[in-house]
């Protein structure tokens, strides 16, 4: 009897939260279970109400490794949180709205995923987003440095080639920078590469593994077709076609969406695939290897995307590029030139 009265009180509190309540929570019973310490990781999504954020939030709510899911945005989080929280999966969902709730959103998080910021429209480069997104990423990373400095951070906001260096500078200034824990998400390039190569080879894309190195914009996206699994050779025309399609995959979507934004659904899929790999690494699973844009000594540049092994501390090993053919060596030089400028632009933004 007592228990049932308590339940009714809990449900009623959920339906009529006190006006001062600043958090939007999912089902109260689930909250009790989380307070009791259910296994799993605490994940925050910053920019959770956006085109990427919403499907990403939905897919993370379905991930059995997630026990608590914090959804932060400057708009629309109450609706997204209420909606996602009705899914009958284990993770407890809480919503946070606006800068005054950023610290609560971040405190205690193991993994923070950042898709906050504006997307491209046709005719724009990713670098054209810098003026708006640089400041957004800087502010969010200042919050991370303060509230969850040990969290793994996955940066999706473009231009990734500059926003990752921005994040690194913010963390350095705060004295919290751990290069193993900061990762730019280039997974969508790998997802596209696997798909497009599988199309040409007539294979199931799940059987194809294409390393994509460099960065995440135009010529900085460098697929290493000479290293694909299963091993396969391409004609020069096939190599040219595939490389160009992989490098311009983002633009293909931006043009098809005709002003309504850039890739959101395939990006949410890629972001979850990558976040899931980070969580498996955190759990201590063996041989978790993905491509990511990280602080690196693989080239002379301070950041570079290549294959990395993920573990309990984040990036535990960065693999060398391996043997490149002449086409790839030429591509690498072009990629490094553009990357150097984008990295410097990000560093300069924080240092100015
Ligand atoms: N890394 C990649 O492979 C990849 C792929 C696709 C898109 N992107 C990038 O991801 C970003 C988001 O794309 P989208 O399509 O979801 O855009 P969107 O406009 O649909 O959503 C962005 C969300 O960010 C929120 N936001 C804005 N300022 C914020 C702040 N200060 N704090 C928290 N949230 C804030 C907005 O309210 C919005 O809900 C863009 O920069 C886009 O270029 C990257
Ligand atoms: O192309 C964009 O602007 C978004 C994203 O970087 C992508 O590769 O789809």
Automatic annotation (TrEMBL):
Residue intervals of the Lactate/malate dehydrogenase N-terminal domain: 42-184
Pfam family, one: Ldh_1_N
Family (UniProt): Belongs to the LDH/MDH superfamily. MDH type 1 family.
Domain Lactate/malate dehydrogenase C-terminal residue range list: 186-349
Organism: Solanum pennellii (Tomato)
Xref: InterPro entries: L-lactate/malate_DH (IPR001557), Lactate/malate_DH_C (IPR022383), Lactate/malate_DH_N (IPR001236), Lactate_DH/Glyco_Ohase_4_C (IPR015955), Malate_DH_AS (IPR001252), Malate_DH_type1 (IPR010097), NAD(P)-bd_dom_sf (IPR036291)
Protein name: Malate dehydrogenase
SUPFAM superfamilies: LDH C-terminal domain-like, NAD(P)-binding Rossmann-fold domains
Subunit and interaction comment: Homodimer.
EC number from the UniProt entry: 1.1.1.37
Subcellular location: Peroxisome
Main location, first listed in the record: other
Domain of life the protein comes from: Eukaryota
Catalysis: reaction(s): (S)-malate + NAD(+) = oxaloacetate + NADH + H(+)
Keywords noted in UniProt: Glyoxylate bypass, NAD, Oxidoreductase, Peroxisome, Tricarboxylic acid cycle
UniProt entry tagged with the keyword Transport: no
């Amino acid at each position: 009897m007592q228990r049932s009265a308590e339940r009714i009180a809990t449900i009623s509190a959920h339906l009529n939260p006190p006006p001062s309540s600043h958090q939007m929570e999912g089902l109260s019973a689930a909250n009790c279970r989380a307070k009791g310490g259910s296994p799993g990781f605490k994940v925050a999504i910053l920019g959770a109400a956006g085109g990427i954020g919403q499907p990403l939030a939905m897919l993370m709510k379905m991930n059995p490794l997630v026990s608590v899911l914090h959804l932060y945005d400057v708009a629309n989080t109450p609706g997204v949180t209420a909606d996602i929280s009705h899914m009958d999966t284990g993770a407890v969902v809480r919503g946070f709205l606006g800068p005054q709730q950023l610290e609560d959103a971040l405190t205690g998080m193991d993994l923070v995923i950042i898709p906050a910021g504006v997307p491209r429209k046709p005719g724009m480069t990713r670098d054209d987003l810098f003026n708006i997104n640089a400041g957004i990423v800087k502010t969010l990373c200042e919050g991370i440095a303060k509230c969850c400095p040990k969290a793994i951070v996955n940066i999706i906001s473009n231009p990734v080639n500059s926003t990752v260096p921005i994040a690194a500078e913010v963390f350095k200034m705060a004295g919290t920078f751990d290069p193993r824990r900061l990762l730019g998400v280039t997974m969508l390039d790998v997802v596209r590469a696997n798909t497009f190569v599988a199309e040409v080879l007539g294979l199931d894309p799940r059987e194809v593994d294409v390393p994509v190195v460099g960065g995440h914009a135009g010529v900085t996206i460098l697929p290493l077709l000479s290293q694909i699994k299963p091993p396969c050779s391409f004609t020069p025309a096939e190599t040219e076609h595939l490389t160009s399609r992989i490098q311009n995959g983002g633009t293909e979507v931006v043009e098809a969406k005709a002003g309504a934004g850039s890739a959101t659904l395939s990006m949410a899929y890629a972001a979850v695939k990558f976040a899931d790999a980070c969580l498996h690494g955190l759990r201590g699973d063996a041989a978790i290897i993905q491509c990511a844009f990280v602080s690196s000594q693989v080239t002379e540049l301070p950041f570079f995307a290549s294959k990395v092994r993920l573990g309990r501390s984040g990036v535990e090993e960065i693999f060398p590029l391996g043997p490149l053919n002449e086409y790839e060596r030429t591509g690498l030089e072009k990629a490094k030139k553009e990357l150097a400028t984008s990295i410097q632009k990000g560093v300069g933004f924080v240092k100015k």
